Amino acid sequence: MKKYLALGDSFTEGVGDEDLLRPNQVRGWADRTAEVLCAHGWEYANLAIRGKKIRQVINEQLDAGLSMAPDLVSIYAGGNDILRPKADLDALMRGYEGMVRRFTEAGSTVLLFTGFDTVDSPLFSKTRPRTAIYNEKIREIADAHGALIADYWRWREFSDIRYWAVDRLHMSAAGHTLMASRVLDVLGANNVTQANWSSQITLPALQSLPVNSRGEQLKEDLGWAKEHLGPWIKRRLTGTSSGDTLQPKYPDYIHLSV
């Protein structure tokens, strides 16, 4: 029986794809991918926790993950580091490469992610150069260690705001569903799974985009700033994280079903 392990931060935990019946009350692309894998006999574990930075993923998830001997491991971390201008990406990515190397040496297939292109984001567009540097490091690591890449940067369909949650930072349920389909495409194209497994993901129909007046948009922006931006800034200033009190969703392998 093959085993899939997911490591990382909020992206992989599934924030933005609310499901009150699941651990941490989120589903996410990794769960959605695993549901297809498990339907074909795989097992699944997920150690990702929101708010984690690269060093935290290395320190808190690497050894545990290696002990679980996954056939496939997906790793994404770095978004929370990119948002911090003083973070040394070169040094952090050396640690990231060490994490990938240890899994590949242990015989795992490793799936990595590039960062999303924030060119159209009023709030995060200034992080674009750092994300581009991060992405080039990811490509170098993948080349050096034979890792697979889910190329989020080049998947332009994710620029549609309907694939984003109300916090404007995480993907919506529709976004996570699309990501699961794209991940299965990558796995199928590289013979990790059968090529047609992505067809088992049903993509939701997108609702029509609202046409807001300038006043309505301003009101929406102010509401977003109060509910999401303010608390995020407060956590940054106080050195706290939304994941500080959370545990991994699936710390042991399970057979996950819809």
UniProtKB/TrEMBL annotation:
Gene3D superfamilies: SGNH hydrolase (3.40.50.1110). Residues 6-177 form the SGNH hydrolase-type esterase domain. SUPFAM superfamilies: SGNH hydrolase. Keywords: Hydrolase. It comes from the Bacteria. One of its GO terms (molecular function) is hydrolase activity. PANTHER family: GDSL-LIKE LIPASE/ACYLHYDROLASE, PUTATIVE (AFU_ORTHOLOGUE AFUA_2G00820)-RELATED, GDSL-LIKE LIPASE_ACYLHYDROLASE, PUTATIVE (AFU_ORTHOLOGUE AFUA_2G00820)-RELATED. This is SGNH hydrolase. The lineage of its organism: Bacteria, Bacillati, Actinomycetota, Actinomycetes, Micrococcales.
